[in-house]
């Protein structure tokens, strides 16, 4: 079962939005920073794995970022807020478009 959550990291003023699979692994992740919620990452694990297989991982990482490397259930101090898939998509789509439109 897929779930969607968000949480805030106060120290850096970053909102994290996650799409999490049944095993707790992050499938997609968005990071928005500051009061204007500027997208700093919008990564997909499936895209990352495909790019890894193609050998162009640095380009993907530098543009879209990476997803969390361990299941969310292992995180300490994590207090997630549940989202609907629609709420996640409302953040994912604009963040991806904004990051993709930036010069490389």
Give a verbal description of the structure:
It comes from Streptacidiphilus cavernicola. This is DUF402 domain-containing protein. This protein is an alpha+beta fold and 104 residues long. It has one domain (3-101). It contains three helices and five strands. It has helices at residues 45-54, 57-64, 85-101; strands at residues 3-9, 14-20, 26-33, 38-44, 81-83. Strands 4-3-2-1-5 form a five-stranded antiparallel β-sheet. The longest helix is centred in the last third of the chain and has 17 residues, at 85-101. The radius of gyration is 13 Å and the shape is globular. It starts with a strand and ends with a helix. The mean pLDDT is 89.
Descriptive keywords:
104 residues, alpha+beta, 5-stranded antiparallel beta sheet, 3 helices, 5 strands, 31% strand
Record the SSE blueprint.
Blueprint: E1 3-9, E2 14-20, E3 26-33, E4 38-44, H1 45-54, H2 57-64, E5 81-83, H3 85-101
Antiparallel strand pairs: 1-2, 1-5, 2-3, 3-4
Protein name: DUF402 domain-containing protein
Euclidean distance between termini CA atoms:
35 Å
**Total number of helical segments?**
3
Major sheet attributes: 5 strands, antiparallel
Q: What radius of gyration results from the CA coordinates?
A: 13 Å
The beta-strand count equals 5
Quick rundown:
The protein is of the alpha+beta class and 104 residues long. It has helices at residues 45-54, 57-64, 85-101, and strands at 3-9, 14-20, 26-33, 38-44, 81-83.
């Amino acid at each position: 079962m897929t779930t969607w959550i968000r949480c805030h990291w106060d120290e850096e003023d970053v909102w994290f939005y996650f799409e999490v699979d049944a095993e707790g692994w992050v499938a997609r992740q968005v990071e928005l920073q500051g009061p204007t919620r500027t997208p700093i990452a919008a990564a997909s694990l499936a895209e990352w794995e495909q790019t890894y297989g193609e050998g162009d991982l640095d380009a993907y990482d530098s543009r879209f970022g990476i997803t969390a490397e361990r299941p969310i259930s292992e995180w300490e101090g994590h207090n997630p807020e549940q989202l609907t898939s629609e709420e996640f998509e409302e953040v994912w789509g604009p963040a991806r478009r904004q990051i993709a439109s930036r010069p490389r």
